[in-house]
Amino acid sequence: MAENTVLVPAGALLEACGRILEKVGVPPEQARIIAEVTVEADLRGIGSHGLLRLPAYVHRVQAGLMAADTRLKVVRERGATVLLDAQGGFGQVAGVYAMNQAIERARQHGVGFVAVRNANHFGIAAYYTMMALPHRMIGIAATNAAPSMAAWGGTTAVLGTNPISVAIPTGQDVDIVLDMASSVVARGKIRAAATKGERIPLGWALDAEGRPTEDPQAALKGTLLPIGGPKGYGLALVVDVLAGVLTGSDYSVYLASVHDLSRRASVGFVMQAVDVTAFSDWAEYTKDIASLIDVIRNSPRAPGVERIFLPGEIEWLRRQQYWQSGVPVPVKVLGELQELAAELGAAVNLPSA
After folding, report:
1. pLDDT digits over 57-109, tens only?
2. Residue 347 domain-assigned?
3. What is the CA radius of gyration of the chain?
4. Residue 255 domain-assigned (yes or no)
5. Which DSSP category does 183 fall into?
6. Which residues pair with 320 in a beta bridge?
7. What is the predicted pLDDT for the residue at 195?
8. Which residues span the domain enclosing 56?
9. Dihedral sign of CA atoms 182, 117, 260, 335 in order
10. I want to staple 213 with a disulfide (CB 3.0 to 4.6 A). Which of 58, 120, 207, 306 is the partner?
11. Does the global pTM surpass 0.70?
């Protein structure tokens, strides 16, 4: 455990998040959903999308920029597809409802595709795609975000990190769970480094003058670099079309950051569920998946590599560890949660920072 973190039981974090959210008017059941998505990020070691974000959510509700009570409205539906309007509510609540709808449509049609507009930041995309796994379905999710990355060859941020996640059932203990930003790293990781007072690796971002930087504060004023150069730029653009333009949400420079308390945000995202049994016999499918995994795991390893992991496997192992030992929460983040709870009069059982 790093010296600047404190181990906190996951249950205590869930309870604290829920109580804080309820104090600003979030209904108890919705507060539970938001808390689960938030803490799941920290359990999987994705702190950039977890507790670090909670104060911003609360402040947006307090500023009247985000609805405390998320009320979804069906805009249109046709067979396997649905378009929902989150009406300025929490992305987590809308995301869980949307994926449940996609799963239900997939039961009927083999696939389900649900789009959401006018929402807010929804946390880690993997939470939603993993919802499909127990149903023998593949889950797919993509969302747009406030601009933090320049187009390939540009110097001004015009696209978000625009992540995509795909969760694939394997029939084994470990499933395949891809969750990646279109940039080299998520902007939240740079924000987390700034919070901890850490440097960032060269190759993550450029400063406002377009120069490579190790300073997270300078990076936050500049732009992120796309993964794979022009390929990451292309992926980010496609996601912005699917999540933003297609749904009728904001996109590119028109989408406000979760930390911008001067205007509302209209985040868009899409959720898809694919029923494996609509295309393949389950036994045959899992046999082939097992064969593929064996090929990957047993392929020759590079010098110094002891084990080849599946996408999401490291996070799965980390979650098991943190659930048992406690979640390592940065001291600064823990202090901010305690201050927020005290300000709102929420009774929380958190250790001192």
Report:
1. 999 999 999 999 999 999 999 999 999 999 999 999 999 999 999 999 999 99
2. yes
3. 20
4. no
5. B
6. none
7. 80
8. 1-62+313-353
9. negative
10. 207
11. yes
Identify the pLDDT of residue 352.
85
pLDDT at 211: 87
| DSSP SS3 for 5 | strand
Question: CA 74 from chain center: how many Å?
Answer: 23
Roughly how many angstroms between the first and final C-alpha of the chain, as a whole number? 15
Tell me the two tokens of residue 298.
């047993």
Assigned domain for 163 exists: no
Which pair of tokens denotes residue 300?
Answer: 């020759």
Three-state secondary-structure class, residue 293: helix
Question: How many residues are given for the chain?
Answer: 353
Q: Is 62 exposed, middle or buried (0-12, 13-18, 19+ CB in 10 A)?
A: middle
Q: Which residues pair with 270 in a beta bridge?
A: 115, 142
Q: Which ranges constitute the DSSP H helices of the chain?
A: 10-23, 28-43, 54-62, 91-109, 126-129, 187-196, 216-221, 230-240, 282-297, 313-325, 331-344
pLDDT of residue 109: 98
**CATH number of the domain bearing residue 328:** 1.10.1530.10
pLDDT < 70 stretches in the chain? 1-3
| Residue 305: CB atoms within 10 Å | 9
121 located within any domain: no
Q: Which helix (H) or strand (E) holds 271?
A: strand 267-275
Query: Which candidate, 143, 155, 149, places its Cα nearest to that of 225?
Result: 149
Residue 14, classified by CB atoms within 10 Å of its CB into exposed (0-12), middle (13-18) or buried (19+), is middle
* Domain count within the chain: 1
